[in-house]
Design goal:
The protein is an alpha/beta fold and about 350 residues long. It folds into 3 domains: about 45 residues, no CATH class; about 130 residues, 3-Layer(aba) Sandwich (Rossmann fold), CATH 3.40.50; about 130 residues, Rossmann fold (3-Layer(aba) Sandwich). It is about 40% helix and about 20% strand. Strands 2-1-3-4-5-11 form a 6-stranded parallel sheet, sandwiched between helices. A 6-stranded mixed sheet has the order 7-6-8-9-10-12, sandwiched between helices. Strand 6, helix 9 and strand 7 form a beta-alpha-beta unit.
Amino acid sequence: MKISNKPTVTAQDVARLAGVSRAVVSRALSNNGSVSPQSRARVEAAARQLGYQVNFLAQGLNRQRSQLIGVVVARLTDPFRSTLVNALLSAIQARGYQALVTEITDEQETGLSLRRFVQFRVSGVIVTSGQPPESIVRECIEHHIPVVGINRAQSGPSMDVVCSDNQAGAMLAASQLRKAGCQSFIWLNYQGSTWAGRARGEAFHHALAEKGIALRELQATQDGYEGGFLAAQRHDLLPRQATTGVFCANALLACGFLDGMRQQGKNAPTDFHLIGFDNTPQTAWESYQLTTIHQQVDVLAAKALDCLHERAKHPELAARVIPVAVELVHRRTSPCTTEQTGTL
């Protein structure tokens, strides 16, 4: 195999060809600092002619911060999480950064990932999963790296959290099921639930308790489609003389539950009403047409990056929880009647 002896093109080569200083090249290609339109055009033309590529990692070593944003996520196979990561990648790239994504399976891996991000001198870290130890969050902050969480609990006094409004979503679900004529209610979650899932359940319970309505809590042995499917196998699940409303912690649980009930000859909304959470693409499939709570992933991503930007400039800010509005999407498993239109 022939090895190329072509020398590496440097920023100084670009500066020489463009007739500007090395500092102007750095500002023009990193969008970091003031550069006249004429100088920027000359730099970009010279970079294209020479085939120069910006080394963001080297920039980070020089400036103590790179153009990288670290993203921590678990179970990318989950439809909602993959949708959220896609939204984050688009938002990160649109702001001139690159994403450094790491998938984790436990808290220890979360800590290791955050330490790697510190070593890479990332400009910020977004944690969508796991519970980062407070010591690791403090380590990031000590290195002037802001950390923001999405749909999770706060960890440390300087960690902002952007979160879909779980309380509002649960209230929408409770209102819809009551107006649909349900007399008994079930909350379906799974063992080892996420913080967001537990918050939805607590809010659903509170919304019904305010009306003096009892709630039956059903816990699946595992998350996802399989957990929902198996949870539907309980023979005493639906009272014979009362329409039951079922609210699920996430979309996959709801889809599995629906198929499990269909296997027993029961379907929504004829025999029960069903509402999920997330509004993933699968919920709109013809085979499901699931009524669900919609999370605005684009808004979650944008606000997470806004938090990183603001905290980088003002690290002394107190930790904030930024709510993002949700909405109820009516489909077949609990449709909106004419009487309900505009009342939710």
